[in-house]
Amino acid sequence: MAQKAGFQTDEKALIRAAQEGDQDAFGQLVRAYDQSVLRLAMNLMRSTEDAQDVYQEAFLRVYRNLNSFRFDCSFHTWLYRIVTNLCLDQMRKRKVRKEESSQVEGSDGLVDRMDTVQESRPEGDPMRSMFAGELRERIEKALGELTARERMVFELRHYQGLKLRNIGEILGTTEEAAKNCLFRATQKMRVALGDFV
Amino acid sequence: MNSCETIRTQLGMLLYGELSFDEEEMVDAHLEGCAKCRAALERERELHKAFDQLEIEPPASVLWDARQSLQQRIAAEHARPGQFSKGSGWWDQFVDALMLRPAGGTGWLKLAGALALLTVGYMGARLAPDLGLGTVGMSVADPGAQRVRSVEPGANGAIQIVLDETRQRVVSGDLDDQNIRVLLLSAAKDPSDPGLRYETVGILNDRAQTADVRDTLIYALQHDENAGVRLKAMDGLRPFVQHPEVRKALAGVLLSDGNPGMRTQAIDLLTQGVGEGSGNAPGNTLDRDVIGTLQELMNRENNAYVRQRGERVLQLVNASRDTY
User: Fold this and answer.
1) What is the pTM of this model?
2) ipTM of this complex
3) Residues of A (72-101) whose Cβ lies below 8 Å from B
């Protein structure tokens, strides 16, 4: 607890310094959060390129608008509001365009685009099959059928480990509404997976 | 008494820790007396585990690329009026470095092929603020980085300022030039600039067959705080994975590197060929040390993806998950 309190104090000082023009402080703020921002964007967008776009745009917005940050909420919440809004916009555009299969046509037939995200590795990777199985496909498909908000709440709760209260704050809604959204998302996933699990 | 149907709608939230104290009490009390709902809870756990399989951890190289692009875009923003006008930190140093490097992104040191150009003493220097206002009689040497060492009020209202100046000097030569090599080996450990270390390690990778370069790459792999630099060093060591000192360093990465992407790559390198089964070489053997390291990893690894990779390799070589 003391450590967390210490971090928050340090973070406040960092933000204030960055607001006053200390770019080293701004760099430290970016490094404190950018890995989790990129993880969130990659998990939501399921595309390295789109995730990179979200990352760039989010931190540029932070850079441009940091002076308007007034500590009404935590920096984490403020940053995640920016990131989730960018992701929601992108996801809704995709729905409109009736994109987006996670698979693309490759030289060997259909290839999962997220396979290209992993680091280069030896040919014939024995683990690859673990992630190309039917279960993965079903979950991918089920995730794709969630609404953008359901997808977002599920991502923030299941993969990012945020509490529903915090998720509600980020998405501008109540804890109860976030809970209902998560309930609907998991229910849809359960139904889509049938007796597979 | 709560119905099983009501309880089962709560199981997901129970696993997420999102039930109130009273709700959790109610569910726990029901589960104690209901085997069917306990089985349903187990199924819910399996479902959550299945979801976990889809989690993506950004590889270190993607994060590195993202940071580099952001730095470049911030540099462009920085040039706009009204943005962060003061400061000489990490971002400024990056901007300053950009100004010195040819445009076009990465690989500035590689532009002349085997010819290396190194700007000495500039990267770590802190430029003094623009002293263009009222510095009559003062020569602000250029090119040259300056740092104010001390200031002292003098007679008649004059102020005496002592400046440290670090002048730029360009040294050129090919990678086999001993002087160039020494400078590169030093730049690879420069604590102030991860970008410089990344580029330098990339160049040194072409000479990893020599022991001093290999030692530097191993040092970077083990000690560099930046995952992008560590990953680059690992790339350079890839052809030398059979060397004992490289294997030892990779085993160290596997057990102590905080980045799951690095640990995954270390597994790949240490277990090259396992499970490929090409031709007459089934590739299902692995030396005992690596098996031991993987077994030790299984005892401490928290990342599901890395665990699965490790487990899979152990399974392929018919080794148990436990240590001997």
Assistant:
1) 0.50
2) 0.77
3) none
